[in-house]
Amino acid sequence: MKPVFANSAFVTAPERLFLRGGTWRRVPLKVRYGIFTHPEAGLVLVDTGYGPRVTRGPRSPSLRLYNTVLHPELVLEGQPGTVLRKLGFTPHDVGTVILTHFHADHVAGLDLFPKARIIAKAEVLGRILKQRAWKSLGHGIFTELLPADLASRTLDVDGISPREAPLGLGVGRDLFGDGSVLAIDLPGHAEGHFGLCFTDLPKPLLYAVDAQWCTDALGDERHPGFPANLIADDASALVESARRVLAFRQVGGAVLLCHDPAASPYDFAQETP
Questions:
Q1: For FRET with 253, which of 11, 64, 66, 135 sits at 20 to 30 Å CA-CA?
Q2: How far is residue 70's CA from residue 215's CA, in Å, rounded to a whole number?
Q3: Alpha carbon of 231 to those of 46, 65, 102, 103: distances in Å?
């Protein structure tokens, strides 16, 4: 059940924005999402990446502003529909979508999967659906990207049975009841942010999502500071989450981050911007 991670878009940013001591050179950051098949749950997506609902067509003024500021460049060959077809599937074959958090670059393709079960933080989703648009904009969250029936299709990850994760990672939520995929709370980046530990691989893999934007930034001396820490939900919690991820890696675990520009053996394809 080795997962693969496709790249939906590139967002270019100065290196020193996401890596303390970095240069001013602009680096294309990936926007990954994951795909794997579970023997009982079937085809599963981990987030959905960026999609055209962010970059074109009818959008709210706040979403247009968000797109103007970040200017994501979509990778057409990396969009979920295209990647699924290359793997021999269609979007209708996706039975479950795991949402690690609700930022736009993780939910923009949800409209492709109207029948899929959603695994996410239900309490966080409830707050998002009630809060005002201006507050959501500051956190990169846009309810217009969320299907109207999302809450009714959501299985609360916090209600799933706990299980000890490998290599000292702590307790996770056993998403499929067999210990193969554990949801690991990694607070700080966004409210309710969690990663996934794939335990059945020869080397356990922690998809740490946005615990940092590149693996070099996991160490204390390389954590990005101002202004990157301004967009964190909880800057001190983010530092602690990064330390846990690094500790897991140092004792033999594999780590993958959503935006890391470096190639990974788990990448579905290697694209250039």
A1: 11
A2: 21
A3: 23, 16, 14, 12
> CB within 8 A of 117, min separation 6: which ones?
95, 96, 97, 153, 155
- Is the backbone of residue 197 left (phi > 0), alpha (psi -120 to 50) or beta? beta
The residue type of 270 is: Q
Does residue 6 carry a pLDDT above 90? yes
Is the pTM here over 0.90, yes or no?
yes
CATH number, span 4-257: 3.60.15.10
Q: Is the pLDDT of residue 237 over 70?
A: yes
Tell me the pLDDT of the chain averaged across its residues: 93
**Amino acid at site 192:** G
Output phi, psi for 51, to 5 deg: -150, 180
Task: Return the pLDDT at 270.
Answer: 46
